[in-house]
User: What shape does this take?
Amino acid sequence: MAIQALIVDDSESFRALLRRRLSGIGCWIAGEAGTAKEALQLFRDLQPDLVTLDVMMPDEPDFTAKELFATIRSERHKTAIVVISASPRVPTAAQFLSQGAIAYIEKSFLNFDQLGRKLAYLFPDLKPPRAPSSS
Assistant: This one.
């Protein structure tokens, strides 16, 4: 059974990178969103197994990434959420993790192999990234 993923990031190029990497380990990219509002609608329509969530979304005074996170957790607790941020100074990493995010990753330090292994552990149907060959 394919793991359905929803990618939420305001950067099209970063969404494309996540799409390639997640597809490469066996995720089915069910949807992509560039705003928190769009993501909420897709989340409710798709009920994905995994959401990657950028916390630094464009200014949306009536609905933020934090509120999206809280809504996802309350509406579908079993959805795994990976929180991603471009800013190392976002003071909410511990808060997201304490509220149930499976990982909090800074974009500049994003290690796709490590993320892939963590996801493969959580979702046994996924294939972990291949280790580099020593030849």
Summary: The mean pLDDT is 85. Helices lie at 12-24, 36-46, 65-75, 93-98, 112-122.
